[in-house]
Design brief:
heterodimer; A: 497 residues; alpha/beta; B: 251 residues; Rossmann fold; 6-stranded mixed beta sheet; 4-stranded antiparallel beta sheet; 12 strands; 33% helix; globular
């Protein structure tokens, strides 16, 4: 066998490029979870009574629930009492909100992460000239950075405010827009939705809040970088996006975490509400630390994401590129309540070494003439397990609902696994549900064909994998698409001879 | 100096029952400017020769040597062999879904240029060159945007190989049964492409079953491969003789 054959590609593990620890003093709660911890978090954030009560209610529900075990993933039991539930960078205790006061160490962190230059400029408070930053004219990006549990910087606030858009940490929105938060928090994902959503509801740290007023097209793409930084700190983001009638917003979420030996739990909740004729496009690039090649360390990513198409002709589109985390358990879903509403899910999930991913979507059709599209591309390398799990439910009320699902799996080497679990529940005989699935391998023949034209092995694999993902990448905003392509390359790097 | 020098080459293919010897002391010398046709019955080792020279996985060299322009081919990775000027036109070109033909060609030409310390071609002029080449081989320019060989007909796949040959302009072209499955019109287009490629500075090794191709690409030498060795060499009249008599009289 030649050295460049497929089997050898998966031998060596890849080095995690974002593995470093920022040295910032933190205020961290000791491990453990009980009512007093929930009260502490709420008090620490100066929350109103209704929210403290809401958290306590969620905590009570969580205590009665059991950890789910139906996903196709395996991991040692999590000791929820060994996790610390609150951590804030200490330099934030005095509440500086201006970027000049941001710890320079943090800014260096963003640099190491390779946050695009124009976004660094945005972080530094410079209003970029679209022509000078190399992005298509008019595609400004506003960044809300979540460093550990507290949002430390929010940019472009004025531009957004002029359009009436609210984009701020949810901890701030609780105070500045309590009526919106109280009305919509938990409206799409109830406290008791699932074990991790209940946990999140009790102890959520911070996250983004977005409100787009009626008829407004958000003047820029909204972006948040998440980063888990403290040892043994669970991270419980809570994001809420509301697009009022006829509005439009595109939201980008990108993540990376430093290298750690301990497994870190991450249980985020993201709720989207799209009113009639509104459109929300939510894109994620996720490259949290996946653990080393033997499966040591890495993030446990147990996330609940769901959008509600509340009114007629609303549209919610999830696009995700998942390359990180030791375990991923994530099903961004859409509830199609409004007539003629549209739900979309485009996903690339890449697993390497010992990573396990159980991911997919749920499309719940309730309104008439609702339409959903699912395109899932799973790539497995090394000894990883990659699973698509999707539910398409057509309710009796969903006259003429349509769904199209396409699930493709690509295997690299012969030690990995790909699985597809499609669930279809159809209670309306006027519905059309289509499902297509395929499994293929990066073959020795394809690799050899590239190499015979002078293309080196690593580039050949990356090109073949990128080709496989093309349908999803073209759904991503331009700057994200480039990043996603690079990310696949990095994730497969070192896995190649 | 010889362009290609294959001496006493032994090679086996890996099978479920262990290694199966195929090449058993093969000698072949190609000088710049020459076209060599290799003919022979099924299972004689024709495709194995092409695969071993280009470095396809699944074969083990048991002895002998293969030099291209003074470099020991057998020491090199497949992509390094391509970078020093070895080109294989595939008998069964593979599909690479989602990777457009144009993207693939650009990756290829950039890799070759990088390896040779040459400047990578400007994208606009590169695309123009490729479109002209495609047109000269009766290929619809729209096919450049399609995935590599994705949904191509047999004839289109083979013409695509010839287009790559003309674009990359290697030192040595190995054509592995490029004529198989082609109708007469496509055969003429392919032969015309190979004739355009031929020059005083490069060489062609043409592996074929049928004399028919040699009506259009006239070889300088014809070799008969049987049981892993070249048992007879001659000029193009040998091919005509083979067509009339079959291989039996030689073996």
């Amino acid at each position: 066998m030649s050295k460049s054959s497929v089997d050898d590609l998966v031998e060596a593990g890849s080095e995690y490029h974002a593995g470093f620890v920022t040295d910032v003093e933190s205020e961290t709660l000791p491990p453990g979870l009980d009512e007093s911890v929930v009260r502490f978090i709420s008090a620490r954030k100066g929350e109103p009574q209704w929210l403290t009560d809401w958290r306590l209610e969620a905590f009570a529900k969580w205590r009665e629930m059991r950890e789910p075990n139906w996903a196709h993933v395996h991991y040692p039991p999590i000791d929820f009492q060994a996790i610390s539930y609150y951590s804030a960078p200490k330099s934030q205790t005095d509440g500086p909100r201006s970027l000049d006061e941001v710890d320079p160490e943090l800014l260096r962190t963003y640099e190491k992460l390779g946050i695009p230059l124009h976004e660094q400029a945005a972080l530094a408070g410079v209003v970029p000239d679209p022509a000078a930053i190399g992005t298509p004219a008019g595609t400004n990006v506003a960044v809300d950075v979540v460093f550990d549990s507290v949002s430390i910087a929010t940019t472009f606030k004025e531009t957004l405010a002029a359009a009436g858009v609210i984009f701020c940490p949810i901890s701030e929105a609780v105070h500045s827009h309590p009526e919106l938060v109280q009305k919509y928090l938990g409206s799409v994902i109830p406290q008791r939705d699932n074990y991790y959503a209940a946990l999140n509801s009790a102890v959520f740290s911070d996250g983004s809040f977005v409100y787009i007023p009626k008829g407004v097209r958000c003047p820029m793409e909204l972006s948040t970088y998440f980063r888990i930084n403290e040892r043994n700190t669970g991270q419980f983001e809570r994001t809420l996006i509301i697009a009022d009638e006829g509005s439009h917003v595109s939201y980008l979420e990108g993540c990376t975490a430093p290298m750690r030996d301990e497994n870190q739990l991450h249980a985020a909740v993201v709720e989207l509400v799209a009113m009639g004729d509104a459109e929300i496009k939510y894109s994620t690039v996720q490259n949290w630390y996946p653990g080393d090649e033997n499966g040591k360390g890495g993030i446990y990513n147990f996330v609940t994401k769901r959008g509600l198409c509340a009114g007629p002709r609303a549209k919610i589109s999830w696009t995700q590129v998942e390359t990180g985390s030791a375990i991923t358990w994530k099903y961004p879903s859409v509830v199609l309540r409004g007539d003629e509403s549209v739900g979309e899910f485009y996903s690339v999930a890449l697993t390497n070494n010992r990573q396990q991913a159980d991911t997919g979507t749920k499309m719940i059709h309730m309104g008439k003439n609702t339409k959903s599209t699912i395109v899932s591309k799973g790539i497995s390398a090394g000894g990883s397990e990659n699973c698509y799990r999707g539910l398409v439910r057509i309710s009796p009320t969903a006259q003429n609902a349509r769904n199209f699902t396409q699930c493709d799996s690509l295997l690299i080497g012969d030690q990995c696994g790909a699985h597809t679990f499609p669930y279809i529940e159809n209670k309306n005989n006027s519905a059309t549900v289509e499902h297509e699935a395929s499994t293929s391998k990066v073959s020795d023949d394809q690799l050899f064909a590239c190499q015979q034209r002078g293309i080196e092995t690593e580039q050949a694999v990356s090109m073949i994998v990128n080709g496989f993902c093309k349908e999803v990448f073209r759904e991503l905003p331009m700057e994200f698409a480039v990043e996603a392509g690079k990310l696949l390359e990095v994730s497969l790097e070192g896995a190649v001879g | 100096m010889n362009l290609l020098d294959v001496s006493n080459l032994h090679a086996s293919v890996e099978t479920d029952d262990g290694p199966q010897p195929i090449l058993k002391g093969l000698n072949l010398t190609v000088k710049a400017g020459e076209v060599h046709a290799i003919m022979g019955p099924n299972g004689s080792g024709k495709s194995t020769l092409a695969n071993v020279l280009s470095g396809r996985p699944g074969y083990t060299v048991g002895g002998g040597g293969a030099m291209l322009g003074g470099n020991n081919l057998l020491d090199l990775e497949p992509f390094e062999r391509a970078q020093i000027g070895m080109f294989l036109a595939f008998q069964y070109p593979v599909e690479i879904p989602g990777v457009s033909n144009m993207e693939f060609l650009k990756a290829s030409i950039d890799s070759l240029a990088r390896a040779r310390g040459e400047e990578q071609p400007n994208t606009a002029s590169f695309m123009r060159t490729v479109r002209e080449l495609a047109a000269s081989l009766d290929l619809d320019p729209a096919f450049l945007k399609r995935g590599v060989n994705e949904g191509f007909s047999g004839g289109e796949k083979k013409r695509n190989e010839i287009m790559q040959l003309l674009l990359l302009n290697p030192k040595l072209a190995l054509l592995d049964e490029t004529d198989s499955g082609l109708d007469i019109d496509a055969l003429k287009v392919v032969a015309d492409g190979v004739n355009r490629y031929r020059s005083e500075s490069n060489g062609v090794v043409l592996i074929t079953h049928y004399q028919r191709l040699l009506d259009y690409i006239v070889p300088d030498y014809v070799h008969v491969l049987s049981n892993g060795q070249i048992i007879e060499s001659g000029d193009k009249s040998l091919a005509l003789e083979l067509e009339a008599k079959g291989y039996a009289w030689l073996t």
